[in-house]
Write a structure and sequence with these properties.
Elements (H helix, E strand, L loop, with lengths): L1 H11 L4 H18 L1
């Protein structure tokens, strides 16, 4: 699930660095919940 989500996020915003950082933080939060 996490890998697919990460790939999806990368597809959405390749060019928007700040948005990518926000998404990365969200992914880290989700990872913590799954572990």
């Amino acid at each position: 699930i996490i890998n697919n989500l990460y790939n999806f996020v990368e597809l959405i915003d390749n060019n928007n660095c700040i948005f990518n950082i926000q998404k990365a933080k969200l992914i880290l939060k989700l990872k913590e919940e799954y572990e």
